[in-house]
Amino acid sequence: MELNQAFFRDSFSPTELDLVLAQGWRHFGNYFFRYSSLPSGLQIQPLRMRLADFVMNRSQRRAWQRNLDLHIEVKTAQILPEYQHLFELHKTRFTENIPDQLEGFLGYEPESIPCDTRVICVSNEQDLLAAHFIDVGENSLSSVYSVYNPNHAERSLGTLTILLAIQYAQNSGKRWYYPGYATKEPSHYDYKKRFAALEYFDWRVWKAFTATKPVAS
Predict the structure, then answer these.
(1) Domains of the chain from N-terminus onward
(2) What is the pTM of this model?
(3) Residues ≥6 apart with Cβ < 8 Å to 9
(4) 164-201 tens-digit pLDDT
């Protein structure tokens, strides 16, 4: 099933957000999109997690434990200088498809963010180390974009921010967590496949997912 669709929307209620997430839509600002393949030919697989069934693996537990000294705070999403600075550090990780600016993911004005979008801030005593932007629905939570300081690679901040989003969703009584798109083939999105209790969307229905291959229907 080949898809390449998009639309603009100024606002979504939490219930409406649940519906579009369940149909494989993502958004940057008020631009909503879904597509089934990349120009390279890789096939897109939207993922979601059954939060009631999630448990950390050994590696994720280690990442969690080594970061217990950090301060975590959840705020309403805005475009602030500290997030811009972190974004500039974060983009140095890329050698291709380098992201341009944070506004491309969140929108150019706070009022242009169509959903209840929040940011999980991760700090030590001196600096903001990571910022993970999330959409909050009625029964779901979705990751929009994450930026972190690459000079703290030993902390596994990418893994940590996903775990924090999962914890926030569970504590809020959500049913689903959407980590975003991955691909059917191996790619740099594979880190999203390392979490338990995942399902993938075949653009018709959601199916159980394993780390090796999707479960046959």
Answers:
(1) 4-208 (3.40.630.30)
(2) 0.92
(3) 30, 32, 114
(4) 999 999 999 999 999 999 999 998 889 999 999 999 99
